[in-house]
Amino acid sequence: MDATRNNKKMFNTALKDLELNYNEPVDKRYFYYLKFILGSLYIWKLLSRNFSNFGEWPVSVISGYPIDIYPPDYMLITAVPILYDLVTFHFIHFFVPWPQGGTLELVQIAAVLSALLFIFSSEKHTRLCAIIFFILVSYLWGFVFRLGQDIDAVFLLQGCLLMFAVTPLTEVKKYYKNIRFLVFVIFVLYYFTSGFNKVIDLSYAEWAKYDLVEINISKAQASLTEGYMWSPLLPIPNGILSEFLNIFGALLTYLVHLIAPLLLFSRSTYKILFYWIFYSLFHFMTIFVGIMFSMNFLAWMMLLPIYKLPRIFK
To answer: Alpha-carbon dihedral of residues 129, 134, 139, 145, nearest 10 degrees?
Structure first.
């Protein structure tokens, strides 16, 4: 009986914390701040790539599917024919030819303009702008994923944008709270599924075995001698610290991924800052093994509770 009572008490406490987090006093400042960060990061990504290049590829290549490149697992459930065409809006090419470079360039320009409209749109028009914006970027990055490039580059942004596209405008304050909470959910799902993927892919013994220092040396040498992507050399000599990183670096990361749902049960600014600092350090460390998560450094700014700051103008 005591165990049942304690479990019920813990469950009720968790529900209360979840409700308190949802009911944070989000205001207009945060709403437009969130849109500004999300839209600006997308503009950065859009201006960092020439999508017209895909129009020069053979149709037999750009009409392939990610499932043809990556081994099947639960993370690639949408990477199969028909379903992938639906989520990327490439199903239109069942009826019209695949695009040429000029067409893709126009779509890219339209996506940048839609990002600006999304940033500055009112609450009334935000959802419509988000839907148009979502369709355009889904279509463009669909080609990126078809070719197996940057498979993880915009998943976090795409999820957040989808929340704007599917959330209807209700009473304004409730609308702000819905958007903020759903963005938190996207962040939690993004990192939790990454950790859960390790549970599926690796044995528990392998959680504490990641040769970070050795991989870094190999990547750094390859960048110098074979022209691979630049990877800086870790300023850590072989020794106790390198062994610590090899054993606990990946293990700690996987564990923090798995406890990411705790973000939903806390209103603490310090906890958000802890996660941001931890993941910023994690994303920074991946540079040393040839993986760039530069966008994710800034994406965490979307969660900062600026609505808690004092108002300068009343």
So the answer is: 160
